[in-house]
Amino acid sequence: MAKNVLSTKELDRLIRARKPGRFGDGGGLYLNVNASGAASWLFRYKLGKAKTRIMGLGSYPGVSLADARIKAEAQAKLLASKIDPLDQRDATLQAEALAEASRATFKALAIEYQTAHGASWSEKWRKGWLRKLELYAFPHIGLLSAAEIGTGQVLKVLQPIWSSKTRTADEVRGQVEAILDAAKSRGLREGDNPARWRSHLDNLLSKTDKRKARQRRHFAAMSWAKVPELMQQLVQIDSFVAVATQLMILTGARAQMIRFAAWDEFDLEAGVWSLPADRMKMRKAFAIPLAAEVVVLLQQLPRIERNPYLFPGQRLAGGRQATVIHANAIRNLLHRMGRDDVTRHGFRSSFRDWANECTNYPREVCELSLAHDERDQTEAAYSRSDFLEKRRALMADWASYCTRTPATNVVRMREAKV
Q: What residues have CB less than 8 Å from 223, skipping those under 6 apart?
């Protein structure tokens, strides 16, 4: 039996003295005191020829002297059975954590997955990702553990929407598959993934519906030949939304980039619009060269006091003004102009088609003008240029084309063909 050296009175004296050190009680039990007077219990031991190890037993006085002796005696019994106390404690904690995790519901696992992987997603994508699960998966499997979800449960999620909302159903299937794969990696389930498609659900759900749903859907785009006519109409409209639409067309930017365009992103003297990574779809900072026509357009745009954005929204109840234009402001303007068949995103296609048919700029320059970097990782590592000046020339030609009168452009097109 271990010889007990310390007493409660002695412990209090050591702590009051605030003299750093380890003070033994016998049997491998020590009180560790630091300069601030904080004290904790340690169990120092050695198993076989292994190095000496130290195990924490709790702080004093939270763990009393008597309790510390009981804990130390329990560890000594493990040593007598050739069991390493630290390894045993780690194994116990791991088993408890696994048991606790195994009780986690699919909904909880989905939220954990979103937290772990969603840092690089846009806010809109994060919300949409979870929203689909809330609508279609959680009502059926949200309260089940990962181990309880089999093919039957997955089919209950997918079958009601497979024919009517196949694309959404397939996205939900992929989400369920990813979440269950993550659960398996954590040891929360075993066996094949019941949400996998190949050689499993493809035998149970219509492949035809999936093929149709996965066909690429293109945004309705205005013919590049009609863009100058639209630009002439937009120039006649005195509104922030009309200017925002012109900026979107002339820069090839996405609607969300335009909507939250801030004055501090623009260097009109240098003719550059610098967007930070968190404003870009691919989370990579991007610079857009501004044609002379764009610089003039923005120089004439009035600035609203205490509003950092280019395009403030309409007046709200109480006289306040919305920070930025409404998400559908540009679309609604196009509809009022009788352009119901054209989407905002489609203007990027108009620009790309014009670049293909009317210019000789390299493909990579045209693609990068739309923030599409098609270079693979190796190529991009050696060629780090963003082709800013080459893109500047391309965007200048595009702006020149868009802002000329339609009749002038027809003559130029005829001359080019000749």
A: 350, 353
Average of per-residue pLDDT across 365-378? 72
Instruction: Considering only residues 27 and 246, tell me which one the structure prediction assigns the higher pLDDT.
Output: 246
Q: How far apart are CA 179 and CA 146, in angstroms?
A: 9
Mean pLDDT of the chain: 84
Confidence of residue 176 (pLDDT cuts 50, 70, 90): very high
Average pLDDT score over residue span 192-199: 93
Structure tokens at 3: 């010889």
List, in order of start, the domains of the chain with CATH numbers. 8-97 (3.30.160.390), 106-213 (1.10.150.130), 224-417 (1.10.443.10)
Helical (H) or strand (E) element with 30: strand 29-33
How many Cβ atoms are within 10 Å of 336's Cβ, its own excluded? 11
Q: Is it the case that residue 319 has pLDDT exceeding 80?
A: no
Among positive and negative, which fits the CA dihedral 375, 377, 379, 384? positive
As a whole number of angstroms, the distance between CA 268 and CA 49 comes to: 73
What average pLDDT does the segment 131-142 reach?
94
Distances (CA, A) of 275 to 86, 304, 371, 385: 52, 21, 11, 16
Count other Cβ atoms within 10 Å, centred on residue 6: 18
Q: Reply yes or no: is the peptide bond before residue 312 cis, omega within 30 of 0.
A: no
What SS3 class is residue 24? strand
pTM beyond 0.85: the answer is no
**Mean pLDDT, residues 246-270:** 93
Report DSSP state, residue 59: E
CB 101 within 8 A of CB 136: no
pLDDT number for residue 383: 42
CB neighbourhood size of 238 (10 A): 7
pLDDT, position 417: 37
The one-letter code for the residue type at 253 is A
Q: 67: Cβ–Cβ under 8 A, 6 or more apart, which residues?
A: 58
Which helix H or strand E contains 304, and what residues bound it?
none
Which of 31, 33, 57, 55 lies closest to 45 in space, CA to CA? Answer: 55
Whether the per-residue pLDDT at 380 is higher than 50: the answer is: no
pLDDT at position 415 over 80: no
Q: What is the DSSP string of 369-396?
A: TTT-----HHHHHH-----HHHHHHHHH
Please compute the mean of the pLDDT values over residues 154-171 and round it to a whole number. Answer: 92
212 and 166 in contact (C-beta within 8 Å)?
yes
Angle formed by the axes of helices 388-403 and 240-251, nearest 10°: 130
Rounded Cα–Cα distance for residues 269 and 260 (Å)? 21
